[in-house]
Design goal:
By secondary structure, this protein is an alpha+beta fold. The chain contains 22 helices and 13 strands. The strands form 4 sheets. Strands 1, 2, 3, 5, 6 and 9 form a 6-stranded mixed sheet that branches. Strands 4-8-7 form a 3-stranded antiparallel sheet.
């Protein structure tokens, strides 16, 4: 095998076989998005593409074998991620149908729901949507306004949108194709509100007409994702059978008596939401996959496009210019780093979702990790795709070179499945409160009060290849001038930064007293500090995952190349936050200057391997879709 093949084997991870199978199978299908299509044409095309996916096994992978699936959550997430390399509309539409709608039924429903719905929704005989977000409430799901009031005289729930802000908004599938919605609403019975639960609500008949009491509307043109029929739904006292409550975590009997295996309302809500973590994992991975496509296009173009005479009589390839290397190669290194971290996250998710009795603490750690990696990967995609577009000049602005389509389609990933700012606060909350059972949600006051007494020593808790990481840190050079290329030194700098940011944020939050208004004011003043906790924590996790991934690489030449890529990633992060490291005396002025020198030296080292590294990403030639490369 070539060096590029060996690198690809290393970063493809545990579900390498799924990636290889997807590259082969998906390349044979006509999946690339056509920007010249109308909305109706694009939507119809994506639906037909979904039907072509059913025989591949990707749709069935995420469902348990006893429900008609393959029982392989890791395959499901990896397969959805591979779709992102061809068409993000297809990835989103597939994710809504099989991940969100199907996932809600499997994870929140019971046997009666599994038997009736799972197989039809896998085969697309039942098309659904996931109706959580409302016009007035997105991230704050606990405050949703839609109600589901039980009527014991008929044995039905009455689904109702009491205000304009209770309208279900931006719902994929709601504008045209979905027949049934998984609706999140406040369960009310016997005059008591038991919080948000999920209900299956038919919204259209076989002729695609709205059912009585249901009003759907079309979101129309968006910034991208033309193949996804996003829409809005209003309910006017729509009646559904009692059995349409997905009742794994909360049931209502015929008389209207509510029971739940989880007594605490907060704990019950977050347990329900936690079972849907797969969507957040998929969104982060898909965004990074889209960035990998953009990098594969832009680096290849940089190798082909020549401009201005360098050597006498010879124009210089764009990628031979230092500034062009600075634009693209650190992003390429970051894509590698995030791929290793995503591989590790998917493996954790798969293990927990295939265990009969998963550990609750491990589940919360998974949710926190998924939130942080979703934030960093989608942020990376937005930044990387824009840089790739600019690096290709006017050619990059042409729709038939794919980059503008990728930019428009991926932009929303930073805010769906959780706004990135909110998600980084969630990561910080888990670290500050030591995964305290009593702290749920994102209540700022609760975060402040628990941070005052319980700050987790989570930084010392290794996330990947624990013994290897500790050995590298212990073996680093002494406290004098840092060897910036030493992996132990890099790991230690990331760890010290995280520890310091957490400890100083906790001290700021401890200033609050018992007064609620004062506690909120303290939190609000420190919010930027809280966000930094989430960011530096995930940076450390990513570097550790990259280090562990290199240790598993079976080819030494590929491992050597990956070591240089890893150093470029680590030093780029340090250079990006150089002010913090200098302000807090973690690196001297001279070493700060050395960071830039070492980055430039690594660019010289990696420039001859640029095509190899792009090939290592494994983006199929059929999914590039850029005419400027032909």
């Amino acid at each position: 095998m070539s060096l590029g093949d060996e690198v690809r084997r290393a970063i493809d991870g545990k579900w390498r076989h799924v990636r290889e199978q997807s590259r082969e199978q998906l390349s044979k299908l006509d999946l690339l998005y056509d920007p010249s299509l109308t909305l109706d044409e694009a939507r119809a095309r994506v639906l037909e593409q979904m039907r072509a996916l059913v025989p591949t096994g990707i749709p069935a992978a995420g469902f348990r074998t006893e429900h008609g699936g393959l029982g392989d959550p890791g395959m499901a997430v990896t397969g959805i991620e591979m779709l992102a390399q061809f068409d993000l509309s297809l990835m989103v539409k597939a994710g809504v149908q099989w991940g969100l709608f199907g996932g809600a039924i499997e994870n929140l429903g019971t046997a009666r729901h599994h038997e009736r719905y799972i197989r039809p929704l896998i085969d697309l005989d039942l098309l659904g949507c996931f109706a959580m977000t409302e016009t007035g409430h997105g991230s704050d799901v606990q405050s949703l306004e839609t109600t589901a009031t039980y009527d014991p005289s008929t044995g039905e729930f009455v689904i109702h949108s009491p205000t304009e802000s209770a309208r279900k908004d931006y719902i994929g599938g709601a504008a045209a194709h979905a027949r049934v919605a998984a609706v999140f609403a406040r369960l009310i019975t016997r005059g008591e509100d038991h919080g948000v639960h999920c209900f299956l609500v038919p919204i259209r008949n076989e002729n695609a007409d709205d059912l009585p009491g249901v009003t759907t509307s079309d979101c129309g043109y968006k910034g991208g994702l033309g193949g996804v029929d996003n829409g809005r739904i209003m309910f006017d006292r729509v009646r559904i059978p009692r059995e349409n409550l997905l009742n794994r975590y909360g049931s209502v009997d015929e008389e209207g008596v509510y029971t739940s295996p989880i007594e605490s309302r907060n704990a019950r809500f977050f347990t329900m939401i936690g079972t849907l973590v797969r969507g957040r994992v998929s969104v982060g991975g898909a965004a990074r996959a889209a960035a990998e496509v953009a990098l594969s296009i832009a680096v290849r173009y940089g190798l082909e496009r020549r401009q201005f005479e360098g050597l006498p009589g010879e124009e210089t390839a764009l990628l031979d210019y230092r500034v062009h290397q600075r634009r693209l190669l650190p992003l390429l290194a970051e894509a590698y780093a995030l791929r290793f971290a995503q591989n590790q996250l998917v493996a954790r998710m798969h293990r927990l979702q295939t265990e009969s009795d998963p550990d609750p603490l491990a589940q919360r750690e998974l949710e926190s990790r998924a939130a942080g990696l979703k934030a960093l990967q989608t942020e990376f995609a937005t930044r990387a795709i824009q840089e790739c577009r600019e690096a290709c000049g006017g050619a990059g602005y042409m729709a038939d070179n794919r980059l503008t389509v990728l930019k428009g389609d991926s932009d929303v990933f930073t805010t769906f499945e959780g706004d990135n700012v909110v998600l980084l606060q969630l990561v910080a909350k888990e670290l500050l409160t030591a995964y305290a059972k009593d702290v749920t949600g994102l209540d700022p006051v609760g975060m402040v009060r628990f941070a005052a007494s319980t700050v987790a020593d989570t930084v010392k808790e290794r996330t990947a290849a624990a013994q290897l990481i500790q050995r590298l840190i212990d073996a680093r050079p002494g406290d004098g001038d840092h060897d910036l290329l030493d992996r132990g030194t890099q790991l230690n700098l990331f760890e010290e930064r995280e520890q310091h940011v957490i400890e100083t944020a906790a001290r700021r939050l401890r200033r609050a007293g018992e007064d609620k208004a004062e506690a909120f004011a303290v939190f609000n003043a420190a919010q930027d500090h809280v966000i930094k906790i989430g960011r530096v924590h995930i940076d450390r996790i990513v570097l550790e995952a990259f280090t562990a991934g290199i240790a598993r690489c079976e080819d030494e030449e590929a491992a050597d190349l990956l070591r240089d890529v890893c150093s470029l990633y680590a030093l780029t992060i340090i250079e990006r936050d150089k002010a913090w490291f200098m302000e807090h005396n973690r690196i001297s002025d001279d070493r700060a200057k050395a960071v830039t020198r070492e980055v430039n030296a690594l660019l010289d080292t990696l420039r001859p391997h640029a095509l190899t590294l792009v090939e290592g990403l494994g983006v199929p030639a059929e999914s590039l879709g850029a005419t400027m490369l032909r």
